[in-house]
Amino acid sequence: MTATVPTGTSAGAPTSDVDPFSHEVLEDPLPMHEALREAGSVVHLSRYDTFALARYDDVHEALLNWQDFQSSAGVGLSNFRYEEPWRPPSIVLEADPPRHDAPRRVLQKVLGPRALRRLREGWAADADALVDEVLARGTSFDAVRDVAATFPLRVFPDAVGIQEEGREHLLPYGDHAFNAFGPANDLVAKGTPRVAELSAWVNTQCRREVLAPTGFGADIWAASDRGDITPEQAPLAVRSLLTAGVDTTVHGISALLYAFATHPDQWQRLRAEPSLARTAFDEAVRWESPVQTFFRTATTDVRVGDVVIPEGRKILMFLAAANRDPRRWADPDRFDLSRDPSGHVGFGMGIHQCVGQHVARLEAESIVTALARRVATIEIAGPTVRHHNNTLRAWESIPVRVALD
Amino acid sequence: MTATFPVTGTGAADVATLRVTGKHVQADGVLTLELASPSGSRLRDWTPGAHIDLVLPNGLTRQYSLCGDRWDSTTYRVGVLREPESRGGSSFVHEQLQVGDLVGVGGPRNNFPLVPSEQYLFVAGGIGITPILPMVRQADLLGADWRLLYGGRHRASMAFLDELAPYGDRVQVRPQDEFGLLDLPAFVGEPREGIRIYSCGPAPLLDAMERTCAYWPPSSLRVERFVADEAAAPARTAPFEVELARTGTTVTVTPDLTVLEALNRVGVEVLSSCRRGVCGTCEIPVLAGRPDHRDALLDDDERQADDCMYVCVSRSRDERLVLDL
Ligand code: HEM
Ligand code: FES
Questions:
Q1: A13-16, strands of its sheet edge to edge
Q2: In this predicted complex, what is the ipTM?
Q3: pTM score of the predicted model
Q4: H helix or E strand, kind and range, residue A379
Q5: A351 at the B interface (CB within 8 A)?
């Protein structure tokens, strides 16, 4: 790809005119990731006049260092210092300490491993039921439409406690929110006409009187009764789950199923050792990085390698490129259950590290364990189709054929 | 100003064993310790009201509130009062602990978080100022309306007066030998909505605060009672064994290894992520034995249950732990 060859320097950084949000790159971002990683610690992206980090060590450091790399100016390309956000900013994702502290603390408890223990059995049963339904219809199905996009929508909205009606709005809302972290391109334009309608529905779901009396939503409101967050923050904390918790897991589970369909030996390993399900999901999150990128803004002139990124400038962190950096991972392009994927940055790292990661893992573990119980082999049965999103590495369709025991 | 990345390691040993890099007298009987990672790496993040568990070289574990600057990612500061009845915690810190010594550190954990509000009242007695100090800084930074009433036996025994001076009349310094007992009802005033009251100090002060605020809306008042300087089971510095219940394998964990590393060495895979005891990924059920919890996740009740541990940082108080692995 000639576009990623450095074309000059800025602030001492090599420059590239690649557009990471073009359809060509979204279809297959791996060559661009490699080119950026190899060009230097920091690459200036001339098209957006922004700085990119693609190596594991640099991305990892930037994620941990909230003091110099802030989130409150937005974690997309848009700089909230000068530009109006498309919706009121998130009180967790788009906040810095000290304002980040209280809502983060509440969500961490509500979504913590201990809190999820009571969901485990039910989700396992739901997963078995879904797998039985799908296999009853036949041994050829779409791994995205029939499994990955179905299972999270069966368990997660109930766990939050939102109403049944209108749940079909969740995926388009999330898709637009993740597009909106990128530039105002055709993907954003495509979602814009429905923003008002979708936002209105989502905002309604966050209200106390609409939420079920038990669930993550009710737990968040209970925290506001205790004064741990304010009543104004409670609906925004619920909104953060509805925005960040649906598309991510759909594409995360799709990535896992695609990985198994294309690595039959790894599926056999999982079948032989079902306790590998958890590691397998994290390996898929490393390998595919369903959330590809997030931005930060420099709060000071910050040095990365030989480059000083000036204060106030946007920095694009390529989580996906870091997760396949050969400086950190042996044979990074291999999906391999014998690898220890610990330390990947697919869920981020540091104070903003995905607060829903235990939810995502439990969903993935439930569904893949249910499949492994019945499915002996799984293979691709037709052309696969990507779904383009400015932030997510996503799938539209993965036709598969399975053999049962 | 140009910031540079500090050199970081990802190993838990880096954040669970710190070096004393400063020891300063703050007031009569009060000193502050500064702690940093031997490699200079980033420490675990903290929020005002948080404390760390300090595992002293004599094996005793003591809790101290953090009172430094969270924007300084490589240094912790704690304040330590010399307790007349000390059973080896504060007297050890005052008399024996030296700059350059290594100490074990658990947490930071926060049982006393500053919740969002536009108005705060802070009441500190004596060494109870330590968690309050970063809170007033934060309240000020957020532009909240706040006041602090700070009591102590006499002026010379009250720490951080110099750091509080710039806040002017937001801070009322009331040493007992000059002003008598703190006039809590006058400071707190009539019950009102929308104000958060934080208090830390000796038990009689906190009891008086609870009486004074009895008719305030629920959860207006938040207090932190310092755990008495009592004898808790000392942390082990000797090796311990970890038995894996499902396979019957036994692994020895030497002081230079984390439990996670020891498990990995014998080929037992445990998924981890932060390796700092903050994300919760490496939680493992504990079937027997008492872990030495060094994470920043479990609250006090959850710790007491001793039914799980974060193997990236936590260790053992007993010779043998049995894990559900
Ligand atoms: C495979 C699935 C998922 C992936 C790959 C993922 C990825 C991420 C990443 C990379 C971040 C860090 C953002 C940053 O540093 O700026 C993040 C944050 C977040 N995630 Fe997830 N996520 C997933 C699932 C979920 C789920 C299921 C939920 C809700 C239950 C959720 C809720 C959140 C929230 C609220 C934040 C903001 C946390 C903060 O800023 O403190 N995510 N996620
Ligand atoms: S790996 Fe994060 S708590 Fe242990």
A1: A8-10, A13-16, A42-45, A50-53, A314-318, A293-298, A69-70
A2: 0.91
A3: 0.94
A4: strand A375-380
A5: yes
Q: Inspect the interface and report whether the beta carbons of A66 and B283 lie closer than 8 Å.
A: no
What's the CATH number where B310 sits? 3.10.20.30
Binding-face residues of A in 272-301 toward B, CB within 8 A = 278-279, 282, 300-301
Q: Same domain for B93 and B48?
A: yes
Total structural domains in chain B?
3
Residue A222 confidence (pLDDT): 98
Instruction: Give the end of a domain, one of B225, B258, B276.
Output: B225
CATH number at residue B179: 3.40.50.80
Q: Which helix (H) or strand (E) holds B225?
A: strand B221-225
In angstroms, the separation between the Cα of residue A65 and the nearest Cα of chain B is: 8
- CA angle B37/B42/B43 to nearest 5° reads 70
In order of start, what are the domains of chain A with their CATH numbers?
Answer: 15-404 (1.10.630.10)
Q: What is the DSSP string of B241-252?
A: EEEETTT--EEE
Q: Using one digit for the tens of pLDDT, what is the confidence trace for B215-228?
A: 999 889 999 987 55
Ligand 1: lining residues by beta carbon, under 6 Å: A 63, 71, 75, 92-93, 104, 107, 111, 240-241, 244-245, 248-249, 252, 285, 290-291, 294, 319, 346-348, 352, 354-356, 359-360
Q: What's B14's domain CATH number?
A: 2.40.30.10
Chain A CB contacts of B45 below 8 Å: 66, 97, 350-351
Ligand 1 center to A256 CA (angstroms): 17
| B181–A contact, CB cutoff 8 A | no
**Domain interval for residue B71:** 4-109
If you measure from the C-alpha of residue A75 to the centroid of ligand 2, how many angstroms do you get, rounded to a whole number?
25
- Contact between B157 and B163 (Cβ < 8 Å): no
Q: What is the pLDDT of residues A245-259, one digit of tens each?
A: 999 999 999 999 999
Cα(B189)–Cα(A125) distance, rounded to whole angstroms?
56
Whole-angstrom distance, CA of residue B44 vs CA of residue B229: 25
Does residue B157 share a domain with residue B97? Answer: no
> Using one digit for the tens of pLDDT, what is the confidence trace for B244-284?
999 999 999 998 899 999 999 999 989 999 998 999 999 99
User: Is there a single domain that holds both residue B99 and residue B8?
Assistant: yes
Cβ-proximal residues to A2 (8 Å cutoff; 6+ apart), any chain: none
**Are B255 and B237 in contact, with CB atoms under 8 Å apart?**
yes
Return mean pLDDT, chain A. 96
From its phi and psi, is residue A74 left (phi > 0), alpha (psi between -120 and 50) or beta?
left
Q: Does residue B6 carry a pLDDT above 60?
A: no
Q: How many CB atoms lie within 10 A of CB B237?
A: 12
Chain A: residue whose CA lies nearest to B41: A61
> Residue B319, exposed/middle/buried by CB under 10 A (0-12, 13-18, 19+)?
exposed
Question: Which residues partner with A296 through β-bridges?
Answer: A315
Tell me the two tokens of residue B165: 């001076």
CA–CA gap between residue A246 and residue A45 (Å, rounded):
30
List, in sequence order, every residue forming a beta bridge with B149; answer none if it has no partner: B123, B172
- For residue B235, tell me if it sits in a domain: no
- B298 near B1, Cβ under 8 Å? no
pLDDT for res B107 = 87
Nearest C-alpha in B relative to A362: B281
Do B83 and B127 lie in a common domain? Answer: no
In a domain, B231, yes or no: no
Per-residue exposure over B140-169, b if at least 16 CB sit within 10 Å of its own CB, e if not? eeeebebbbbbbbeeeebbbbbeebeeeee
